[in-house]
Amino acid sequence: MSSPGEFYKSLPPITKAYGTICFLTTVASQLGLYRIETIALIHELVFSEFQVWRLLTNFFFLGNFSVNFAIRLLMIIRYGVQLEQGPFQRRTADFLWMMIFGALSLLVLSFIPILRGAFLGISLVFMLVYIWSREFPNAQVNIYGLVALKAFYLPWAMLALDVIFGSPLAPDLMGIIAGHLYYFLTVLHPLAGGRNIIFTPKLVHKLVARARLGYPTNAHVPQDRATGAAFTGRSYRLNASTGRGFSFRRFWSS
Fold this sequence. Notes:
Layout: H1 4-10, H2 13-30, H3 43-48, H4 54-57, H5 67-84, H6 92-109, H7 121-135, E1 140-143, E2 147-150, H8 154-165, H9 170-191, H10 202-211, H11 240-243, E3 246-248
Parallel strand pairs: 1-3
Antiparallel strand pairs: 1-2
Helix pairs in contact: 2-5, 5-7, 6-7, 6-9, 6-10, 7-9
């Protein structure tokens, strides 16, 4: 068993950075160092008073300390790590671009009145869950110790739980839309003979290289694609513990 410090150091760079920022954002909020209204996505203030930082900071607040917050943080660690060390291994810039693309997609969706929200971090985390479920469709997931299903169906099962417990559907729906858009453009469309039209910008590669995050030369790493039907994943193996199936427990606020 590794110590908490060793475990933290072993986390891949983008997952570690995003999870750490989200944690520190909540810590600072709980300590009263700032008011969450100052980082919320309020479109009127972004355009009328040029408070452009809100376009970024709203992704870092996952709620106050609670069971829900802990579950969301664990989702970042579980699914982010498995993506960054699996399909995106040695492709740190591509993983960072996936997060940026997802954030941009969610910002666009937030202009739709019924999807508008002050914080999009939960949707970004759900986007990770959706993409993970597509990359590892045959992984076994256990919900509440009662229902076992393949990871491919996990986002829809979580959405169904939202309906049952009366939780807002918009954050999860936005995550599904953003995740599917990315997966379609980078995996499904190329598999059907199309081109990948959202290549990672050179600026992102340079940023990763300058910050010495992971492997900045990911543009030269072969990217294997599954040759079967759509949504078959890319044939990356999970670690041993996940391969035996894992228990997914999520708590919901009213």
